[in-house]
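Example record for the data management plan.
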Amino acid sequence: MKRIENTFADLAKQKRKALIPFFTAGDPAPAMTVPVMHALAAAGADVIELGVPFSDPMADGPTIQRSSERALQKGTTLRTVIGFVAEFRKTNDHTPVVLMGYANPIEAMGYEKFAAAASSAGVDGVLVVDYPPEESVKLSSLLEGYGIAPIFLIAPTSVDERIEQIALLARGYVYYVSLRGVTGSANLDVEEIRKKIAQLRQRVKIPIGVGFGIRDGETARAVAEIADAVVVGSRLVEEIEKSSADSVLQNISVLVGDIRAAIDRQ
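Corresponding structural encoding:
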């Protein structure tokens, strides 16, 4: 959790915004996960969201669904993903890593075992897509006790009561879902996001990141003018999907580097 807090504090001093790329662990291959993480950090990622593959990723569009299928076919599990973070930490002790996934694998492992293993590996935050705040009190408290930030999604349809519940539990940052739909959706309305972020800031006192539908530098820059962080997921996973094994690191480095440069021009 401290890595996340320190990262946002340092960026605020520099008057810069965070870039948070997402990709699915185990895709394009388990052996490539840690190299991809290092490539993202080198290209300008401030926080890395590492997707835990799941068989029914209901909040994700076709692109990320396919990445989960590929990762699962290659044997990637929650324990595998935690192991990737431990490997990453051997040579990178400063870039925050957030695990993003679904409740089922955590339930299967057990809260205590999961929190202990994640903490030991160097995980900084956990975002469980299908845990509403009402069902997250126990896990959130346990994660905090291990120094891990419980991170929550806020939707365009979230009512004030739900936002207040999230504001009480959330640490690190909150993730505002900019669209009504799944990941990879289009038709981002920047003015609508601007209005919603202004409303959220009345209740949410930690950084606010925006994701879903951000596919290029121009959109990322527009969102960075409003929010504290920009999350890029489906576009990055698409790049991984279409790249050859020999070109994937170079291609994602160029993509993330271009988005980083666009954000810094805001």
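Summary line stored alongside the record: Residues 2-264 form a domain with the TIM Barrel fold (CATH 3.20.20.70).
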